[in-house]
Each structure stands twice: as structure tokens, then as C-alpha cells.
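ok trying this again, last paste got cut off
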Amino acid sequence: MNSFQIAIVVSLAGYLAIGWYAGRRVKDLEDFFVAGRNAPTILILGTLVASFMSTNAFMGEAGMSYQGHAPLIIMMTCFNCLG
């Protein structure tokens, strides 16, 4: 095995270990979906921004930028970050 393959195996083992450790506190499906009702605000903001940015990128940001609407894209992103 070369160093690239070893790095992949170590990364996967690390992901599994983190998932197993974090998953011990989840009691049921509702607890999983609402993060135990104690997620910090920055985590919720990060997931909302990531969801918006992903959807926006796949559903037309490139086309709007090509048409010359780049300031609109920046404004929509700022509005999403501010809530």
C-alpha cells in the first residue's frame, strides 16, 4: 500500500470512530433530527447557509452571473447570512 491508500484508510477509520462516538448519545430518530434540541446557533446558521448556497449554486447562480446579475447573488447571500 502506498501513502495515498493508507491516508484513505486512516481517514475512513477516523470518520467511523467519530460517528460511533457521536452516535452514542442519540436515543431515537427525533433526537437525531433535532440534535437533542441543544444545537448552538452557529451550527444552525451554518447548515442553513450551506443548504442555501448548495441549492443556489445548482439551480441557477451560474446563469444569473452570466447574465450580469452578480450583485443580486451577493445580496441574496448576505440576506441569507443575516437571517
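PB: full thing came through this time. Residues 39-83 form one domain.
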